[in-house]
Model the fold of this input.
Amino acid sequence: MKAAGHVTCSGTTKMAATSRSCRVSVLLMFVSSVLSLSLGLFSGGDAYRRQLSVQLNPGLPLPAPGGDLLHVRAVGDNDTLHFLFCSQGAPTLLIVHTNTSSSTVKVDWPKFEARNNSGSVKVEPESSVLYSTAIIFSRLLEYDDVNNTADPSSDLFPPYELQGFQWSGLSLSEESAQLCGAAKNFSSGSFCLQLAMFQSEGRDQSMPHLLHTANTSQIKVWLDGVLPRAARSRFVLEVQAVGGAYPLSRVEIHRSIDDEFTPTIFKVSQWVSLANGSSDVLGFLQWKPVAYRRSNPALEYATQCRHSEPRRTNGEETAAQSALVKAFYAEPESFGLNVSFGTAGEPFYNSTRFLSWTMLVGIGSPPVDSFSPLVMSMMAVGLGTPMILLLLGGVYVCVRKRAAPSAMAYEPIN
Done:
């Protein structure tokens, strides 16, 4: 009788211990999996880096009389990106990609200042050049939106030609440069551009929080304090893309289910350059269809922006607007589009007298937004928790079923 009682107690204890062990093991496996996933996500990303060097008016000991030329050299393991930002004529950004880490920029300043022929700005060796593209900010258009339809096809005022603006000198700060100017008939305010360069992948701290890589630069343009010519004025920015054989020619719209970094915005627009018969992107201009009506961008001051379809323009006429394009391209090919700010029913420019828009310019495939590591971890926990509860419930039921017959196998002996 004592022996029988002893055996019953021992079997139950072992079953309980096995049950607790199973639960603990499964729980540890779940926690380990979530931690491994989270660590993997946080440690992921593009680790590629470039070494940046900045030079204002390369090869010229004195300030350039007609406007500044900024050269940023971004050196990779076996290639180089040359970013040239110029205020002679309409503001222009030129990107040249070479297949060597030793390529350099040469400027023939007398010819460059004359603006009468190409070849005064070169990247040497010329045989190392893989791809180049230039972005010209050519005109600022203003229209009177009397009916609040945000239709810029009518009631246009005479355009502001940016090549005729009076530009200040470039203001340099670490890895960025700022340029501001005004038309002769501006009674107040200015039109500004800020160029930012990057050594590696990251995300801008200000909305719309664009994702950048070491192969991109970011341009922010803004209109600040300019007196509008009508109480219901809205603005349109004309942008020209210039290249050799493959200029930016097509705009692609990519949609996403994620608006984590730019709330309410689920689309990204990409003006891309494609080689003939290929889907590979050579260069791009990327933006989210949103602008901001305050200098500190926030959701409550967001306004939508729209673009027209790119259309081919006269390359020689486009190059004449920019000293840099004229100096670099012998046979330029160009396309242009307009970006309009504001939609029907939204506040007019006069409400804040401020408007800003941000874009990326780079080579290769544009950066692609994805869920952040924090969101991915939360998703993993959210999806994993019900599964682990089901597993623990299954283990508990199995253990109970196995324990019940064992307890019935030993009946008391009278």
Notes: The CA atoms of residues 285 and 361 lie 5 Å apart. The two ends are 8 Å apart (CA to CA).
